[in-house]
Amino acid sequence: EGRAPEDAQRRALWKTTLQKHGLSYIAEIVTGGDYVPRRNATLQEHLHDVATALQNSQELSPLFATCIGGCDAWSEEESIRFFSEAMQLAERNGIMITFETHRSRSLFTPWTTRRIVEALPQIRLTADISHWCVACERQMDTELDTIASIAPNVRHIHARVGYDQGPQVPHPGAPEYEYALRAHQQCWEIFWEAQHTRGVQTTMTPEFGPDGYLHTLPFTQAPVADLWTLNRWIAKEERSHYSEYQQKKAHL
Predict the structure, then answer these.
(1) What's the pTM?
(2) Taking a C-beta distance cutoff of 8 angstroms, is the pair 29, 67 a contact?
(3) 67 near 86, Cβ under 8 Å?
(4) Which residues, 6+ apart, have CB-to-CB distance to 121 below 8 Å?
(5) Contact 209, 163 (CB under 8 A)
(6) Potential cystine with 158: which of 41, 177, 207, 249 (Cβ 3.0-4.6 Å)?
(7) How many other C-beta atoms are found inside a 10 Å radius of the C-beta of residue 152?
(8) Contact 82, 47 (CB under 8 A)
(9) What string of DSSP letters covers the chain?
(10) Mean pLDDT in runs of 10 for the chain (252 residues)?
(11) What count of Cα atoms within 13 Å lies in the side-chain half-sphere of residue 131?
C-alpha cells in the first residue's frame, strides 16, 4: 500500500517489482498537498489530486485506492461534495475508492464519519481508528454503537494501535498497552463481521510508521523499537486473531 510514483519510469519499476514478487497493490491517495493538507487548498485542488493519483496508479492494477482526503475545517456539506465527486472520478477510472478515517481530514471523528455515511450510504471507508483515539482522547470501545453503524461501509483496515495521547503505541505487544490492543481488536471484529455479512473481501495493512509515529528518545532521537519488527508483530498477531475469530464464528 502506498502512493504511486508520479514519474513514469519509477511506475514501470514498481510494476515489474510487484509482478516479480507476486504482490498485490493498494493505491494510496493523499489530497491537499501532504498528509496534513494545506489549509488554503480548495475543494477543486483536492479533487485534482484524486484524479492525478488515480491516473498514476492505473497501470499498477491496484486492488483499490484508499484516500486520505478532505479537510477537518470544511463544513460537512463541503466534505460530502468532495466524497461524492471523488467517487465519481474513481468510477470513471474503473478503480474502487475508500476514504480513510484520519486526523486533519473530513473523517476526523467517529460522529462526523457517521453523519457523512448517513448522507452518502454508498461511501466506502478505510478504518484507521488509531487517529480517533487522539481526536477523542479515548479508546473506541466507548463508541461501539457508532463503530457498528459505519461497519457496513468499511472495506479496509489499517492495523495500527493508538492510545489516548497518540496514534501509535511504542509496541502493541507491551503489557501496558494490552487494553489499547484489545479495544482496537474489538472494533476490528465488528468490521470483519460486517464484511462477511456482505461477502466483502477482508483486507488489512500493518501500518506502524515512522515520521513522528515511532517513539524516539530525547536528544539522540534513537527509536524505542524497530519499525519492521512492530509491523511483523502486528501482522502475525492479526493473522492469529482473525483465525480465532473465524473459529469462534464456526462454533456459534
Answers:
(1) 0.97
(2) yes
(3) yes
(4) 153
(5) no
(6) 207
(7) 18
(8) yes
(9) -BPPPSSHHHHHHHHHHHHHHT----EEEE-SSSSS--TT--HHHHHHHHHHHHHHHHTT--S-EEEE-S-TTS-HHHHHHHHHHHHHHHHHHT--EEEE--TTSTT-SHHHHHHHHHH-TT--EEE-THHHHHHHTS-GGG-HHHHHHHGGGEEEEEE---BTTBSS-S-TTSGGGHHHHHHHHHHHHHHHHHHHHHTPPP-EEE----TTSS-B-TTT--BSS-HHHHHHHHHHHHHHHHHHHHHHHHT-
(10) 96 97 98 95 98 97 98 98 98 98 98 98 98 98 98 98 97 98 98 96 96 95 97 98 94 78
(11) 23
Q: 56 and 11 in contact (C-beta within 8 Å)?
A: yes
All residues at 6 or more sequence positions from 206 whose CB lies less than 8 Å from its CB, including other chains: 159, 160, 230, 231, 232, 234, 235, 238
Centre a 10 Å sphere on the Cβ of residue 154 and count the other Cβ atoms it contains: 24
φ and ψ at residue 223, rounded to 5 degrees? -65, 145
Query: pLDDT digits over 149-189, tens only?
Result: 999 999 999 999 999 999 999 999 999 999 999 999 999 99
- For 190-209, the pLDDT digits (tens) are 999 999 999 999 999 999 99
Task: Give the three cell numbers for residue 245.
Answer: 475469530
